[in-house]
Amino acid sequence: MGYIKSAALDETGFVVLDSYNEEIDPQEWLSIEYVDWKSSGDTRFAPLASAKGEIECNGFWNHTPPRTDKDGVWIPEQTEKAPTLTRRAQEPGSNVGRCRIIELQPNSYADALYNLHQDDNNRLNPDGTGWVVRGFFNLTDDKNSYFVLRENRTDPSIEYRVALPAGAQLIVDTQRLWHAVHHDGDEPRYCLITSWESGPELDAYMEKYHAVPTAPQFEVSQEVLDAGQAEQARRDAARAAYYAAKGKAAVQAMSEA
Asked: At the top level of its lineage, which domain of life is listed (predicted)?
């Protein structure tokens, strides 16, 4: 049968929406509670909706009973402090799973490449239902930062770099695309991330805000690109060697027991 997916995401795996141009009080993301949750760098997360309405960020499949990333439970003590962000997450009218604000500390382009990852949004998602994708609404004005999106983690031939000023809005099939952010700044970056179920509601929302499957490429020097690619390869090799040695040590310990 297959999943219900949005045709708007077919071409590149992401779309860019009209920029959000209304003022939001920064206290909406500064005054709420964060948990120490690591994802693609030095990060913390402040959940607005979670599996059971608790202030935690675990995948819904790690709860009892396990389920897919849908039917998130809003957390009153968090949403009351972030009413505008909550409304933005609810605006499409599609099913919401996890909804969180990410706080990302500054990093390098090489860090972003090393941290490129795909999300496991659709674990336990029943066939024939809507495919889960994620919306990213940049909250801080990070003019020198950009989203890195790739079809293949280690292949730079198709790499999209989307600028992240305040108000930038993307919807990404993060189970398809490898993704991470290079945050070049002196202060943390904040972004609202919402898991949405694909379907007519989300399609209408993307049409309303003129979604396009591309964006002007954030310009980066070839020297930085090459150095980042080389550093990603070096770190990958070091990690592989570490785990290989760890595996050999375990085998040796077992043989000596």
From this structure: Bacteria
CA-closest candidate to residue 29, choices 211, 172, 187: 187
| CB contact burial 47-71 (16+ within 10 A = b; e otherwise) | bbbbbeeebebebbeeeeeebbbbe
Between CA 34 and CA 101 the distance in angstroms is 9
pTM tops 0.85, yes or no: yes
Query: Residue 209 CA to chain centroid, in angstroms?
Result: 20
Looking at the structure, give the CATH architecture of the domain made up of residues 7-220: Sandwich (2.60)
Within a 13 Å sphere around the CA of 12, how many CA atoms are in the beta-carbon half?
Answer: 20
Q: What are phi and psi of 62, to 5 degrees?
A: -95, 10
Instruction: Answer positive or negative: Cα dihedral of 71, 59, 115, 152.
Output: negative
φ/ψ (deg, to 5) at 84 = -70, -45
Among the listed residues 113, 115, 119, the one whose alpha carbon sits nearest the alpha carbon of residue 156? 113
Q: Residues 79-132: pLDDT tens digits? A: 999 999 999 999 999 999 999 999 999 999 999 999 999 999 999 999 999 999
Tally of CB atoms within 10 A around 37? 16
Place of tokens 């070049």: 184
